[in-house]
Amino acid sequence: xxxxxxxxxxxxxxxxxxxxxxxxxxxxxxxxxxxxxxxxxxxxxxxxxxxxxxxxxxxxxxxxxxxxxxxxxxxxxxxxxxxxxxxxxxxxxxxxxxxxxxxxxxxxxxxxxx
Amino acid sequence: xxxxxxxxxxxxxxxxxxxxxxxxxxxxxxxxxxxxxxxxxxxxxxxxxxxxxxxxxxxxxxxxxxxxxxxxxxxxxxxxxxxxxxxxxxxxxxxxxxxxxxxxxxxxxxxxx
Lengths: 114, 113
Known about the structure:
The structure holds two protein chains of two kinds. By secondary structure, chain A is mostly beta strands. In chain A, the strands form two sheets. In chain A, strands 2, 4, 5, 6, 9, 10 and 11 form a seven-stranded mixed sheet that branches. In chain A, strands 1-3-8-7 form a four-stranded antiparallel sheet, with no helix packed on it. Chain A has strands spanning 5-7, 10-13, 19-24, 31-38, 42-50, 53-56, 65-71, 74-79, 88-95, 104-105, 109-113. Chain A has no helices and eleven strands. Chain B has strands at residues 4-7, 10-14, 19-25, 30-38, 45-51, 56-59, 62-67, 72-77, 86-94, 102-103, 107-112. Chain B is mainly β. Helices cover 0% and strands 58% of the residues of chain B. Chain B contains no helices and eleven strands. Classes of the chains: A mainly beta, B mainly beta. Chain A binds chain B through residues 31, 33, 42-43, 45, 48, 50, 55-56, 91, 95, 97-99, 101-108, and chain B through 32, 34, 42-46, 49, 51, 89, 93, 95, 98-106.
């Protein structure tokens, strides 16, 4: 298995632009997570899907952020409009249902908003 | 919700010495405690985990202990090597909360040769 796949790996954009991050979970995994990592705030959970349904989005910072999971093999995280403070590494992770709890992380997308 | 505190934030040890990282959690319903290692520029990867029905688990040079009464768990690395240098994250997951993890703030471990 190729593991969790994320694209793009690096994104540089200007303030105000729309940014879309993409994730393909490991085949057969039914839980998907989006995280944001910064030096100041560490690793923060943004949103959690189970069987393609958003279960907990309490970590989504504000309305500029949205996430979708149209099917079991694809998810997007969109930021519109982007701001410099959104600059971070965004990780997607997937797992099987409990009790098999291990989360497998993708390589991350490094986002820089100028 | 769950809150996970991790200490220390940085730890420097000499090669061959042991390293201990400690975490506390707030929700007594937590039942799964993984540890992730993140090398510079890489993704977090699971190195060991423990469930609430076990007090200790060991895998070669790494071990994790859990004290449910005190709500704390620790990572122990023995005979440290330079390749152990990384950021280590503890996490906790609450039963019936799916696979959601709450992560600690991370510990940057530096092993000096």
